């Protein structure tokens, strides 16, 4: 006949077996049969068993973390961009602070995406009328790499249109 206590022990035994620990063998090797020390031996065995479970849990967590890092590294192409490269390096070095820094930079760039998309649309429109100028802005050459637009852009645009039809050679000379 099974009792609730023996059912509990059976569940614990099965759970121990699932993580690779033979509870029955451990208990039989840890306990002596002297009746006066049975309780003390049982307490001691349970304390050691708790420590073993903590160690096994830490080992499993470590293994799972390593598997996640390996999966992340296998999905990254470090040659793709500087973010992928820095992320791969942080994961390889197991550096949480480097990972957090790269993550913050990736978030910052992600937030800039709408601005970049608008820039691409505007460059496409400009490319139709003034391809050399659009290319200079796109490549951020000379004064086209500054954070501020040139002073009096209407005059620069008109001047560029006039000189482009007259064969001016460099958009940077005409759009200052």
Topology:
Blueprint: H1 4-18, H2 23-30, H3 38-75, H4 82-93, H5 96-129, H6 131-138, H7 153-165, H8 171-174
Brief account:
With 176 residues, the chain is mostly helical.
What labels would you give this structure?
75% helix, 176 residues, 8 helices, rod-shaped, mainly alpha, single chain, 2 domains
Q: What's the total count of β strands?
A: 0
Helix and strand string, N-terminal first?
HHHHHHHH
What structural class should be given to the helix and strand makeup?
mainly alpha
Ends apart, CA distance between termini: 96 Å
Counting DSSP H or I runs of 4 or more residues, the number of helices is 8
How is this structure best described in words?
There is one protein chain. The protein has 2 domains: 1-75; 78-129, no CATH class. It is 75% helix and 0% strand. It contains 8 helices and no strands. Helix 4 packs antiparallel against helix 5 (96-129) and helix 5 runs antiparallel to helix 6 (131-138).
């Amino acid at each position: 006949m099974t009792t609730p206590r023996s059912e509990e022990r059976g569940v614990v035994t099965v759970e121990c077996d699932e993580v690779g620990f033979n509870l029955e063998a451990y208990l039989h090797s840890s306990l002596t049969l002297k009746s006066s020390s049975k309780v003390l031996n049982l307490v001691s065995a349970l304390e050691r068993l708790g420590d073993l479970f903590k160690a096994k849990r830490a080992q499993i967590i470590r293994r799972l973390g390593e598997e996640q890092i390996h999966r992340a590294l296998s999905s990254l192409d470090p040659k793709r961009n500087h973010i992928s490269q820095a992320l791969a390096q942080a994961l390889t070095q197991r550096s949480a602070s480097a990972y957090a820094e790269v993550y913050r930079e990736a978030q910052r760039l992600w937030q800039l995406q709408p601005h970049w998309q608008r820039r691409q649309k505007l460059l496409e429109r400009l490319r139709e009328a003034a391809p050399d100028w659009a290319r200079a802005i796109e490549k951020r050459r000379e004064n086209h790499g500054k954070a501020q637009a040139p002073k009096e852009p209407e005059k620069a645009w008109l001047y560029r249109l006039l000189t482009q039809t007259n064969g001016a050679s460099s958009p940077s000379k005409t759009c200052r």
